[in-house]
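Methods — Computational structure assignment.
A single polypeptide chain was analysed. Its primary sequence is given first, followed by the predicted tertiary structure written as structure tokens.
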Amino acid sequence: MADQTTHSEVTAPEEPAAERDGTGAGMSRRKLLGTAGATGVVLGAAGAAVGYTAAPAQATPLTSLGAGRAMFHGKHQPGITEGLQARGHLIAFDLAAGAGPREAAALLRRWSATAERLMAGEPAAHEDTDVARDAGPSSLTITFGFGHDFFTRTGLEKQRPAGLDPLPDFSSDRLDKARSNGDLWVQIGADDALVAFHALRAIQKDAGAAARVRWQMNGFNRSPGATAHPMTARNLMGQVDGTRNPKPADADFDERIFVPASGEPAWMANGSYAVVRRIRMLLDDWEKLTVAAQEGVIGRRKSDGAPLSGGTETTDMDLERADDQGTYIVPVNAHARITRPDQNGGAAMLRRPFSYHDGLAPDGTPDAGLLFICWQADPLRGFVPVQRKLDRGDALSKFIRHEASGLFAVPGGAARGEYVGQRLLEG
């Protein structure tokens, strides 16, 4: 999860930022979807093969964390290109029976107004809970997306983008449908747990009678300033995760991550598609392995994230290097090898996950792992090829379990005076 766009290599995104003010040519979508089921899903949290994680933020004294502010209005929605945040909530809603485009528009208008206020460090306009009183914005971001069935429920099927075609089945999936998909999706992130919870409650209350909660997941990352210097984050397996995440400075970053301004449908201009996977890590089994065995599964050193072929964390992996017996130094089924973009037709995605820990499962094992979130201009050419490859033979697959999944169309940012999704609902 530590390499590129693939979640297969256990690579966690970099440390959350304290201050924040974005293939397979010649193959049809139908054919790609039809062949994807034979392969596995990329482990966003674990690997870096297909997606690069947000770059580490500059180290910031903890006393200044509250002053960080992300902007609600912009070309893209917040919560995509910002660095990792210390606390996060993912929540999906289904529209209430009888709710249509008018009710959906009113809801998005309420949500957008609340998000703008809270991200500026202001209280909610009505019945604020005071949970975040005394705190600054703490780099709060609130992001909104639409699921596949939203368009059926609102009679907007003709506006549903091809990028929302259902993901194929993967042989390694063990998905709980009750915790998957949803009509509407909200991602909340902040560098303070109370600020994030305050936003969560405000969003839930704003839903009113228009929508009901389908599922909610809570996550976390390392707090800004917790390390002596900026560094790539670690996941709950202890692996450096996010080494090769795409970076906004890359020449092809926007092309890979965002829908072009001239793309279809028009309301998705400058938007992106989020694939959300709840990936449980079988930590009891993983922790029985020696460090050397864990490194062989991932293909990178646990201590510093450097490839087993040598060098530092950012050194290119030498896939051809072998020992005296002719055995590859980086095993052929290592997560980092399998998820590399150059092993997947250039497929890439921006991974921006949260870790999670929900106590113990009924069998007494830790219910913990990764809330994998990856962003791409087209899931069929980003997430699907990598997950398919992982499904075929990733060494990490025996230590993880994909338990929930969602795919959401996240429109571009709202201009001043607009609400998120206005171009869809009023276009």
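Note: The longest strand covers residues 366-376.
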